[in-house]
Specification:
Pfam families: HIN (PF02760). The protein is of the alpha+beta class. The protein folds into 4 domains: about 100 residues, Death Domain, Fas, CATH 1.10.533; about 110 residues, Nucleic acid-binding proteins (OB fold (Dihydrolipoamide Acetyltransferase, E2P), Beta Barrel); about 100 residues, Nucleic acid-binding proteins (OB fold (Dihydrolipoamide Acetyltransferase, E2P)), CATH 2.40.50; about 80 residues, OB fold (Dihydrolipoamide Acetyltransferase, E2P). It contains 11 helices and 19 strands. The strands form 3 sheets. Strands 1, 2, 3, 4, 5, 6, 7 and 8 form an 8-stranded mixed β-sheet that branches. A hairpin with a 7-residue loop joins β2 and β3. α1 packs antiparallel against α5. It is elongated and about 100 Å long. The relative contact order is 0.06.
Length: about 425
Amino acid sequence: MDQTELETKWRTALSSILDELTDKEFRKLLVNLEKIPQGLKGGVKGGLPRGNMPSVIILHYGTEGSIALIDRQMKILPRLDAAVQQPLKEIKELKKLLKKNKETHPEPQAPQVEDVLGLKLKTRDSQDGKDLWEKSIFDLKSSGIFETEAIVGKVVKKSELLTYDTKTKKGKFFFYLGVADETASVKLMVYGEDLHRQIKEGSSYIFRNLIQDGKYVKVNASSSVSETKPVNVPEEFEREAERLVYPESPLTSIKDIKSSPPQTHVSVEGTVTEIYPVKKVKVEHEEKKMKRFKMRQEAEEISVTMWGEATEQSKDLSVGDVLRLEYMKPKEYFTEVSLNSSQFTKITKVQSVGIQKVTLKIRGIKKATLKETQLEVELDTKLQTLVVASRLLAKTLDFQLKKGFGDDLLKRIPLSVEAEIQGNRIIKMADPENI
């Protein structure tokens, strides 16, 4: 049997396998066939019929490469029944027979190419298009990994830096990574503070000399980590990698958060009732951005503080928005419990009020600079702080913008204005007397 005969038999077997898949399974398979242009994929608008797909798959992945690919994808779906596995088994046996024939009657080999240093150039594994040293995460989890092998994957999630104690030293550092490739995801346990700074979420890396210790796959001092080109990861494996590092926490009521002992992380839903401007505060000799707002859930209200980069997630919030906050850290100060953002905090708007047109009464001035002014305003019988560009304020109320303008403005309040607000910021203003 030669390669042509193998391809012919594989085309027939592949057609049989694809016919066995449900529409949902077939669509899931197509998502992972990244080498095939979207317009050619069957099952999508303008795509080819399912019966044409065996030829398309073999064209883009080769005979042996597509056999290995389909074998792997059927395990992922999973389709381990005889209707799918029997044709695969027969083809793999034919492949072994072809390989045995080649070994018995080898073809003449071209001279080995060497680089200028006399080192042998890398060869490719003809079965799945990977380098000989590269192992998929799916295969790592199912069969382990040798010292000569490595995985290549995208760092989807990185934990905060953690510590552990040894018999001789305290405060050693480690952290977790959620890493994924096109086949699966895995949780890596990584030692070292330097690697925590070096490895970035969203980047892809080659992980070599990994250690398997019980349920953990570890990266230690003898391992090698090198950044590489981006790895395409299906959305399902991205979500799985996130959950490996930080499992989803069920929603907790504000009442339970206040009455229960402090937990590591919680998720909560509520309605925004008040928003405060961003501030810069010193924390352990380091200046950090901070933004606070309050959330209500039925009769209970809680203060929420976002820190650092997490403040960006709350910049477009408005009073009345319904939010889901995930991965928040409860904190008790004296008898008051509040929520603080963590490295993994995620804000989702369940319901947004967007831009609001309101009539508000200016009651006081909290801070006034030539750039922006923080006003204490009365809105819906409640006091809150809103921020407005000082130039807009001066134009609306017809005063000269100069140093100390706040003192002159104080003489005119309380006064009412028509405004459009987004979050805690006034974006448009009009003096009712001039409308």
